[in-house]
Amino acid sequence: VSRILLLGGKGRLGAMLARKWGERHEVRSLARPEVDVSDLPALKALLEGSSYDILLNGTALTNVDRCESDRYEAQTVNALAPKLMSEDAAAKGARFIHISTDYVFDGVKGSAYSESDPGNPMSHYGRTKLEGEDFTLQAAPQHLVFRVSWVFGPDKPSFVDMIVDRSIKGEKLEAIADKTSSPTFSADVAEWIEPFFDPALPGGLFHACNSGSCSWREWGEHALRKARELGVPVTSTEIRPIGLADMKAFVAPRPPHTEMSVAKLAQATGFPPRSWQEAVDDYLQQKFS
Ligand SMILES: NC(=O)c1ccc[n+]([C@@H]2O[C@H](COP(=O)([O-])OP(=O)(O)OC[C@H]3O[C@@H](n4cnc5c(N)ncnc54)[C@H](OP(=O)(O)O)[C@@H]3O)[C@@H](O)[C@H]2O)c1
């Protein structure tokens, strides 16, 4: 049993990690208003007064466009707060686990990214997340960074829920067809990370998403076909393709192709992440049964 201090316990990912790990470990999960990680002195005091084996950071300023305008807050939450966390955990000889993103890449490689590919963020969000990674990995060799992308799960609606919902209501369905990535089921992330509570597993940087990649449109059409199979009254399983360039409301540039290889994670834990299709099927089955 590990003693886990989890910050950001009401986020899409944090809530799942707190619930799943709470079944087997001693989890203290904090969210706003108990903790505002942008208040660095308060965060430092909270950490110094806490004892734990594992410190997990589920907080982030995840609104990519807002990060362009609220630059100071983005840097504080995404980089300076994890810096403090990584230092506190290092001082205690504990392990800090930080969550990062495929947006550290520019998305033009043309094949799946591995952990040894250098980051080249296109947005302030990506730059601040990369900084948070660097602080974490520099603070202690046992610390970990897991990069996820396109997170979905039961704790907060994501693209999958939105597209099924729109189809049930008979609304017009459109999705970007020329941006691809690797969807990540929050429940699977809990399983992938848990083995690393064992200090014998190495620290470092890992890509942690479901295997394979797809466009937003393929992700949505797969979800709609599965929903129909489950008896959900979707009105259509087809989505009109649109281009990334059509998204005039996007402020920050998005990396076009960010499939991530999960070979390193599979090697460290001994089991490969299942495909994104299996993960989406499983999620929808749980949601609609
Ligand atoms: N969602 C994705 O598709 C995606 C993709 C790639 C990487 N990631 C990474 O995955 C991790 C988890 O993200 P998520 O998907 O779970 O997003 P999320 O639902 O937005 O969770 C982030 C949490 O951080 C909290 N937070 C933000 N600023 C805070 C502050 N100053 N003090 C305390 N809490 C604060 C938010 O609380 P409020 O709601 O109160 O603001 C929210 O609960 C992040 O590191 C993110 O960068 C996510």
Structure description:
With 289 residues, the chain is α/β, with parallel strands linked by helices. It is 39% helix and 15% strand. It contains ten helices and twelve strands. It has helices at residues 14-22, 40-48, 64-69, 71-92, 124-139, 159-168, 186-193, 216-229, 263-269, 276-288, and strands at residues 3-7, 26-30, 54-57, 95-101, 144-148, 151-152, 174-176, 180-181, 184-185, 204-207, 214-215, 240-242. The strands form four sheets. The protein has a six-stranded parallel sheet with strand order 2-1-3-4-5-10, with helices on both faces. It has a two-stranded parallel ribbon with strand order 6-9. The protein has a two-stranded parallel ribbon with strand order 7-12. Helix 1 packs across helix 7 (186-193), helix 2 packs parallel to helix 4 and helix 4 runs parallel beside helix 5. The longest helix has 22 residues, at 71-92. The chain is globular, with a radius of gyration of 19 Å. The two termini are 32 Å apart. It binds NADP nicotinamide-adenine-dinucleotide phosphate (NAP). NADP nicotinamide-adenine-dinucleotide phosphate binds next to strand 4.
Short description:
By secondary structure, the protein is an alpha/beta fold. Helix content is 39%, strand content 15%. The longest helix is centred in the first third of the chain and has 22 residues, at 71-92.
